Amino acid sequence: MKRFLILFVLLLLFVSGYSQEVVKKELTLEDAVLKRFTDFYPDYIYGLQWRGDSDNLVKKSDDLDALLFSDHTGMKWDTLLKVDELNDNLGIQLKRIPSVSWIDHNSFFFKSGSDYYKYNVSEGTGEKFTRFPLEGTNIDLCKKTGNIAYTIDNNLYLKKSNGDCVSVTNFDDKNIVSGQSIARNEFGITKGTFWSPKGSFLAFYQKDESDVKDYPLVDITTREATLKSIKYPMAGMSSEKPKVGIYNVKRGRTIYLNTSEGSVDHYLTNLSWGPDEKFVYLAELNREQNHMWFNKYDVETGEKVKTLFEEQHPKYVEPEQPAWFIPGKNDEFLWFSRRNGFNHLYRYNTEGELLNQVTSGKFPVHSIIGLDESGKFVYVTGADETGLNEYLYIAKLKNDKTKKVSRQFGVHSYKMSGKGEYFIDIYSDLKTPRITQVIDKKGKIVNGLLISPDPLADVKIGSTELLDITAADNKTILHARIIKPYDFDPSKKYKVLVYLYGGPHAQMVRNAWLAYAPLWMHYMANRGYIIFTVDNRGSANRGFEFENVIHRHLGLNEMNDQMKGVEYLRSLPYIDTSKMAIHGWSFGGFMTTTMMLRQPGTFKVGVAGGPVINWKWYEVMYGERYMDMPGENPDGYKENNLLNYADSLQGNLMLVIGSVDPVVVPQHSMSMLKRFVEAKKQVDFFTYPMHEHNVRGVDRAHLMRKILDYIDDKLRD
After folding, report:
1. Which of 121, 112, 132 lies closest to 78 in space, CA to CA?
2. 486: which of 131, 348, 362, 426 lies 20 to 30 Å off by Cα?
3. Residue 170, CA distances (Å) to 6, 103, 147, 582, 651 in order
């Protein structure tokens, strides 16, 4: 009888395993695109964070109707606040606990509709903090005072916590734009207003675009199509003229920093406030972007106090992060710099004296998490020497000894507790969707909070592998990703789709879940494809020399490295080298077109999305950093001008763009089409009306269907 039961259990297990295998469902393209961040997204803990400046954890309940709290371990959770209680005490009608930002251990604020509220959980009291104007954009709340900066059209306004609204600027000339991001979001600039630490002042960017040419885009949603012009400074042409204003909230007046010393044709970047609100600091670059001055300005007069230090490089200097003032010290800050080949931290005082290098190693540091309780050590995140992983590191402020804290391979993100003793650590690796845990300051696991099950467990998903190849210089190691079909058979021959980006500030392959591959790649693999991606020289997280090899010759070394990827693919016995396709968007669109025209016959089909065709038509800030001005580098601009290679096209090429793309303007693709017509080359073209640089929302499923069906059709037997 016992033997029978054992056999019966084994039979059940076999049948169960077989049933699970046969019930795995096909991955549809629509699901791959539209459900990637919903049904197929790894589990996470709603609202998990540290409670103010403490070592206590808070999170939302699973049904989102309560806020829960725990000590630092997260082992036992109790109710801190229910949504009904919050509604009763504030006189509002929320259906669930909102996302909260903690002010201290007991108080938080949150936004509901256009209103901001403060709430004290220990007292059970709260109030409406302020309301932002519905007509405003670029909303920037000062948490200290409740004042709100916002823009309407080209001007900047301030709504005070007492309800009064004032105009900070009042320009009738639409060419003068205040309170918005400048330099087309380069140099790490993402916003246009900056509150001082106590909220006494508002610093803001202002740009004069009078000399910048208008670029015409067409709005087809009106009864008769209307012109929708944007300001677009192309490489070598007149650019915007930047300023920084300082608005004194109490006095109601604005002064401008005297930054025009030498030239107004420069960049004002990485704005940071000194903790005492007496000085503003700016990283200023020349138009050539090869010389940076870090300058200190007096807030009351706007005059430059001094240049604290300079950085120069024969190719380019690219500051992207503001000064980080060390807590408790008004006169010391940390500065990010790639001066020694990798992005690291350097400690300065406000007189410009370099005190010491803080972090070191052959890897880039990405962000500062905070100081430990003693104030002697700083925690940072950064890649490892391979560039594949993302870790937590600790470094002593007064020397450059840097130590890795993370103990598991993968791409990690961290939140540090108020006292710097513990960290919320969320990470994944190639095979692990997501793990959420608490670690101590030495990296030891305190408690595992959540191990996400595989959201694709019942879906037919093939294998994803990481591998290394050698670059075209025959010495540099490049990282690559290969995806095989669910039913991969090494005795068969498979078509290939190479997906690429290839440009700076991007990395397609990391040791994260599925190696960063979007799910449409697995859909395509299951249709009989090998999907391949390699991060060529020029991409991110491998050091400044690895990146700047592209300078003045965009596309050349990238193309040669991609051909090394092709060489690897050709060495695989299961690859049908007569049926290879390539696809990429933006810089990847430029690279797709480059590969089709400058390596003709390699790929039978290519789809180039939003491709740069001629770099002299691209924007000043990005284009001149990597290519210099057209007049300074005529051979380089001629070499990568894809119009010059139209006659070489072999195979099938489709260009896809958004009709109102303000980044890679339609002129690129339209000119390429014109040149193909002149060369008597048949190509395909598709535009997404009223979409910008990429196609988002539900239309993205249409885009991917268009691209992948085109590839499938052109590679059909």
Report:
1. 121
2. 426
3. 84, 34, 19, 50, 56
Q: The tokens 């103990």 sit on which residue?
A: 407
The domain in which residue 53 lies consists of 49-126
Asked if 535 and 644 sit in the same domain, the reply is yes
pLDDT value of residue 20 = 43
Residue 446: partners with Cβ closer than 8 Å, 6 or more residues away: 72, 73, 74, 422, 437, 438, 439, 440
Query: Measuring CA to CA, how many Å separate 709 from each of 6, 308, 517, 705?
Result: 51, 57, 19, 6
Other beta carbons within 10 angstroms of residue 352's beta carbon come to: 15
Domain annotation covers residue 348: no
Give the residue numbers marked as catalytic: 586, 661, 693
* CA 711 – CA 520 distance, rounded (Å): 13
pTM over 0.90: yes
| C-beta atoms surrounding 489 within 10 Å | 10
Let me know: does 644 contact 594? Beta carbons within 8 Å.
no
Q: What is the pLDDT of residues 185-242, one digit of tens each?
A: 999 999 999 999 999 999 999 999 999 999 999 999 999 999 999 999 999 999 999 9
CA distance 669 to 666: 6
Cβ 405 vs Cβ 421: under 8 Å: no
User: Which contiguous run of DSSP H or E holds residue 570?
Assistant: helix 556-570
Helix, strand, or coil here: 200? coil
Q: DSSP labels for 95-125? A: SSPPPEEESSSSEEEEEETTEEEEEETTTTE
In order, the DSSP letters of 377-393 are EEEEEEE-TTSS-EEEE
Report the b/e string of 613-632 with b at 16+ CB within 10 A. bbbbbbbbbbbbbbbbbbee
CA dist 255 and 290 (Å) reads 29
- Residues in contact with 710: Cβ distance below 8 Å, sequence separation at least 6, in sequence order: 605, 607, 652, 654, 684
Domain count, the chain: 3
Query: In a 3-state reduction of DSSP, which class is residue 625?
Result: helix
Q: How far apart are CA 512 and CA 389, in angstroms?
A: 8
CATH at 271: 2.140.10.30
Radius of gyration over alpha carbons of the chain, in Å? Answer: 28
Choose among 683, 541, 544, 547: nearest CA to 613.
683
Q: Which two tokens stand for residue 130?
A: 């302020």
Q: How far from each other are the two terminal CA atoms of the chain, in whole angstroms?
A: 58
Give me the phi and psi of 641, to 5 degrees please. -80, 110
Q: What six digits make up the tokens of 113?
A: 């509709």
- Distance between CA atoms of 422 and 75, rounded to whole angstroms? 14
Question: Which runs of E-coded beta strand occur in 142-225?
Answer: 148-152, 155-159, 165-167, 176-178, 193-195, 201-208, 214-219
- Residue ending a domain, choose from 298, 322, 346: 322
